[in-house]
């Protein structure tokens, strides 16, 4: 059986301007070698009119194209194996104004605090601009409309729940988050290695080891590795951390996978690219077509 490896560099691209992009600045010998050996193409991962983000792009990359916004709360619940009973919905809420949760509890919502207190990692910038703690993130599961919340609370889009169009022949290696939730709802097997955080402190070596081990399992035809660090760094407007994140992915994920593909002549391929862009100058997502490169041994 041919094994297809894919590496998704979340938010790795950005608008082209007068200065080199993060991908151009980063030292990526493995990605460069992959481009020399393989074929480069452009992919539109964000259907027109839909929100730019992993909740839209990852379904497209995995094989299901949404026709409306995807329910981010459903992805967060699935990523954590939190059940959403029939007739209820999961809502992701972000913001400093979530401090008082009584209104949500009084409305019958079950609450799960998803806030991750990220430690400062030397060489990778501060957790958020200005050294402040990140805004609180809460998952509220319940029936009926949400109660009135503060104006500084972001209520993520509700909408479509990805259908089960995949099976265990597809394995997705990711941290707990939107990518893992998408994959699980689509029916793929999801592996969350120890140390996988979805940020610049993620254990990328563990992700590569998990991907290689998954490829050796009987019946597995496709192994997708999601790397969230470039997007996370760009959201913090930390351009240097984004470059470092791309370089780390090249060194610790792409390099061992390329070696494995080369050792399986005629039986493996490797593709790599972004799901969408994220501009470290603004911290905002960018929905233009993204580059992908693929090589089959």
From TrEMBL:
Q: Name one Pfam family in it.
A: Metalloenzyme
Q: Which GO terms describe its molecular function?
A: metal ion binding; phosphoglycerate mutase activity
Provide one Gene Ontology biological process annotation. glycolytic process
- Going by the entry's taxonomy, the superkingdom of the source organism is recorded as Bacteria
Q: Which residues cross the membrane?
A: none
- Listed pathway(s): Carbohydrate degradation
Enumerate the catalysed reactions.
(2R)-2-phosphoglycerate = (2R)-3-phosphoglycerate
Enumerate the spans annotated as Metalloenzyme domain. Answer: 7-293
The signal peptide, as residue positions, is none
**Keywords recorded for this protein, A-Z:** Glycolysis
Family label: Belongs to the BPG-independent phosphoglycerate mutase family. A-PGAM subfamily.
Q: What does this protein do?
A: Catalyzes the interconversion of 2-phosphoglycerate and 3-phosphoglycerate.
This protein is called what?
Metalloenzyme domain-containing protein
